[in-house]
Design a protein that fits this description.
By secondary structure, the protein is of the alpha+beta class. Helix content is 58%, strand content 7%.
């Protein structure tokens, strides 16, 4: 399955080179591709569990859930890239592509792969009314359990299988958020919002977000804030040099984007007890915005809690996709920058001129 030199490095718990990491992912892909080149979410989980059980040091330095997320994202990217570059002539890949093209034609879509507004996935051929009912019962029964007693694999399977039904409810039926929560209570949590985003885009948003921040955070902080920026933001930015904490640095860079694009932080984050808007928003509770508890709301209904400001910002972006929401006018430029420039999720919609100008400033900082 793996080259002998790679296996030797794994057994010696050596840090993998870029080539060795590629060989590792190639080995997993080549083995799994004998059975499927389109693994389900729970099948990705099984592969990651087997990998980290066999060579647990690959998750060293990360919380277990973080290491699972990291390797799941890498595997998903590997499968996606191999389908596109090496296995594009496989009958199953050709059939999948043809089916997706047919759906686009039927729904008169002209958007590219990341323009997922109004996206309706095909109905799964293996599903019927009885299997869908069984999955819905599983979702409801799992929602009644405490987080510690839930079966994550079973939940992901049922959520994967009911994904087309959920999109019909959201896109075609314009279901109220409160009713959606009654039907799919499990969806209203951090892990499922991020999984749903992947179902829509085949992109690991946390991975993309982190990579984008690594590229642009220092450049954003090198720019002077506009003179009319909130004093709290100016103070927070000034404290970054003393703090040096990566989470704080990334948080300040995200908040600074709103000021550079002449929008309000309140379009992304509001403090607890402030009036809730009818769109999506992150509510923070604590002494400081960058060290707080974060809850995302949609239509004034809580969607779930996020552990950090950076992840909450990524979660908010995912929420707009998952609930098929338009970016509000007052924060549209910031959300567009996070989507297109930080995460690289491009679509057919042009960047607003202020976003293009700000991005050019950052690129000149290279």
């Amino acid at each position: 399955m793996f080259p002998a030199k790679l296996w030797s490095s794994l057994m010696a718990m050596e840090q993998l080179t870029t080539k060795q990491q590629t060989d590792l992912l190639d080995g997993i892909y080549n083995f799994a591709a004998k059975y499927t080149v389109y693994p389900t979410s729970h099948e990705y989980d099984a592969m990651v569990s087997a990998l980290l059980t066999t060579v647990p040091y690959l998750g060293k330095g990360l919380a277990l859930e973080d290491s699972r997320t990291l390797w799941k994202g890498r595997l998903r990217d590997k499968f996606k890239n191999n389908r596109r570059r090496h296995d594009k002539d496989l009958p199953v890949v050709i059939a999948k592509k043809a089916k997706m093209e047919a759906i686009k034609e039927q729904t008169h879509k002209t958007q590219d792969r990341f323009q997922i507004k109004n996206y309706l996935p095909p109905k799964l051929e293996s599903e019927d009314e009885h299997t869908q009912d069984a999955h819905m019962k599983t979702i409801q029964s799992q929602a009644q359990k405490t987080a510690q007693k839930r079966d994550a694999t079973l939940i992901r399977l049922s959520m994967d299988k009911t994904f087309p039904q959920r999109r019909i409810e959201i896109v075609q039926n314009n279901i109220a958020t409160s009713l959606l929560k009654e039907k799919f209570p499990i969806l209203f949590s951090e892990d499922q919002i991020m999984d749903e985003f992947y179902r829509l885009t085949e992109q690991n948003l946390y991975t993309n977000f982190d990579q984008g921040l690594q590229t642009y955070t220092k450049r954003i902080l090198q720019l002077d804030l506009p003179s009319n920026s909130p004093s709290d933001l100016k103070d927070l930015k000034a404290s970054v040099e003393e703090d040096g904490n990566e989470d704080t640095i990334n948080a300040v860079s995200i908040l600074s984007v709103t000021a550079h694009l002449h929008e309000q932080i309140g379009g992304l984050f509001i403090k607890k007890d402030e009036p809730l808007p009818s769109t999506a928003i992150v509510v923070w509770e604590g002494k400081k915005i960058n060290v707080a508890r974060y809850t995302i709301y949609v239509d004034k209904i809580p969607v779930g809690e996020w552990p950090t400001l950076v992840k909450a910002a990524a979660g908010l972006l995912a929420t707009y996709y998952v609930f098929n929401l338009e970016y509000p006018r007052g924060i549209k430029k910031t959300l567009t920058f996070l989507q297109k420039c930080i995460t690289g999720l491009n679509d057919a919609v042009k960047k607003p001129l202020p976003v293009v100008s700000f991005w050019q400033k950052l690129l000149k900082k290279c």
